[in-house]
Amino acid sequence: MAAKMIIFAACVATTLAQYAAPAYPAPAYSAPAYSAPKAYAPEPTYAPKPYSFEYSVNDPHTYDVHSQSEYSDGYGNVKGTYSLLEADGSTRVVDYTADSYGFNAEVKKIEGGYKAPYSAPAPYSAPAYKSAPAYKPAYSAPAYSAPAYSAPAYAAPAYPAPAYSAPAYKPAPYKAY
């Protein structure tokens, strides 16, 4: 078997030795055909565009009360404030600035500035019960006498003893393997 492998390896080596890897000439770049990469065009600059906006919502049906106002100088500096009505009736007010130093917010809570026009329901308390009444059925149980059973009127069948003898079984011989 080893001799066959040696012969096979020799045949493969002989076959591969007949073919050489193709040789390609090195690429040649001439000055007119190749030039340095061009730099990207500079990013256009735009004049600063400041903005300002504000809005507010006061919905008496849903008790949605909030507002916001914000303005920017166009150079990335933003100042603003927003407020909203909390569930407990207080108002949260947030004043914020965003500039080259980051985002900075100052949160204030104004207590009790708004009360909803409804009152909260009273807390639930379980009703007070007196002691439970004793159970008394509305009827009396009927009086029944115990049933009287008598012995059956027919005789129990008599079966004869079996006419065959039980087979005698021998245990299977044990073979140790």
From TrEMBL:
Entry keywords, A to Z: Cuticle, Signal
The UniProt entry's GO CC annotations, sorted and at most eight, read: extracellular matrix; extracellular space
InterPro entries in UniProt: CHIT_BIND_RR_consensus, Insect_cuticle, Insect_Cuticle_Struc_Prot
Q: Does the keyword Signal apply?
A: yes
This entry's Gene Ontology molecular function terms read: structural constituent of cuticle
Q: Which residues form the signal peptide?
A: 1-17
Output this protein's name: Cuticle protein
Which species is this UniProt entry from?
Answer: Aphis glycines
